[in-house]
Amino acid sequence: MALDVSMKVARHEMGSKGEFDRQKSSFTCSFGTNPGDLPVVSGRYRMLVVDACPWCHRTLAVMKLLGLEKHISIGKASSVKVDKKAGWPFSLDPNHEDPILGIKHVTDIYLATDPNYEKRSTVPVLVDLKTGKIATNDFYNMTKILECDFKPLHKEGAVDLYPKELEADLDHINQIIYDDVNNGVYKTGFATSQEAYEHNYDRLFNRLDILEDFFGKHEYLVGDRFTDADIRLFVTLARFDIAYYTVFKCNRNLLVQFPNLWKYSKKIYSIPEIRETTNFEAIKRMYWNIEKDPFGIVPKGPDLSCWEE
Q: Would you say the pTM of this structure is higher than 0.90?
């Protein structure tokens, strides 16, 4: 996840005018059967995630929908008590280390891949168990990689989340959603100048207003079917009222005050695989850990039972 919970953001991600510029993924590769590709085979890879992270959330949802958790093992790090240098800890596991990789922090796999790595160690990150190094930490494209490149390992009857005939439309809308919404809340919350904050605040809510109108006439983002784009939008909406509205000062409207967006969000949440991978308590703990209440207090509200309606 592209944030440093001790400093909120790294220095190399701050622009001269107080704008947040998220770091690019350092490790990318191609999967397939062409020369230089990594093979798509069962049991070779391990996905390291943090439940509360939106980029991890959408990765976990896609893996569950496609049945890929049977072929790609999952290692979960904790989203709290994160050491500034060591990064996300495997404190949820016995001996506080990942049982497959034998590492205590996500940063350990970054340094095993590149001993000179100095940027933030982000999740999700896909590890090649054969080499013991990172295959890719491309958070933006991770779900598309799983949906398209790993198709040979999809379970029988799996939903096609990135259909070829919609690929151009999905690529287009996903970039918009990322710039204005997924990353928009971070550009708002991590701004260090009033100008940068208000610019991104306005851009975020302008896009949410457009989406509110759009979902008054449409059921899904692209075409007439549930796709990758809906998962990408949902993970931000799921965090809006319990985190971004308060912690990131995105406080013009709550999600529940957008009738169409709220109805759409609950519809996506009702999908069993989405519901199963949505950990509201972990989300709340992580974002308020970022805020670092000096007494360690996590807000009791809001009432999350409304998601069950």
A: yes
Those residues with Cβ within 8 angstroms of residue 190's Cβ, 6 or more apart along the chain or in another chain: 3, 8, 9, 13, 20, 248
Enumerate the known binding-site residues: 88, 120-123
pLDDT tens digit sequence for 268-293: 999 999 999 999 999 999 998 876 66
Q: Which two tokens stand for residue 111?
A: 């340094």
Of 14 and 191, the structure prediction assigns the larger pLDDT to 191
- Tens-place pLDDT, residues 33-44: 999 999 999 999
111-169 tens-digit pLDDT:
999 999 989 899 999 999 999 999 999 999 999 999 999 999 999 999 999 999 999 99
Catalytic sites, residue numbers: 53, 186
How far, in Å, CA of 273 to CA of 264, rounded? 16
Classify burial at 111, counting beta carbons within 10 Å of its beta carbon; exposed 0-12, middle 13-18, buried 19 or more: middle
In contact, 123 and 111? CB cutoff 8 Å: no
Which residues does the annotation place in the binding site for glutathione?
A: 88, 120-123
3-state secondary structure the chain: CCCECCCECCHHHECCCCCECCCCCCCCCCECCCCCCECCCCCCEEEEEECCCHHHHHHHHHHHHHCHHHCCEEEEECCCCCECCCECECCCCHHHCCCCCCCCEHHHHHHHHCCCCCCCCCCCEEEECCCCEEEECCCCCHHHHHHHHCHHHCCCCCCCCCCHHHHHHHHHHHHHHHHHHHCHHHHHHCCCCHHHHHHHHHHHHHHHHHHHHHCCCCCCCCCCCCCHHHHHHHHHHHHHHHHHCCCCCCCCCCHHHCHHHHHHHHHHHCCHHHHHCCCHHHHHHHHHHHHCCCCCCCCCCCCHHHHHC
